[in-house]
Write a structure and sequence with these properties.
globular
Amino acid sequence: GISAPSTYVERARCHEHKGNKELAEADYQKALDLPAEDEYAQAAQTQARQRLTELRGQAKPAAAANGVRTQ
């Protein structure tokens, strides 16, 4: 099976791009559930945590927070 958090983060991004929020959230969560064995995995988990927060409506998207209008 897949054991690298970064793989799930990349797949989640694809799901987001296609508009499938539920599958994206599931993959971001899976990335967080796996052990982070190196700095690359830790960075992927940080990205997953940020995206989950934004997808779940707990924070403004980064672009909006920086004064950039989003659609």
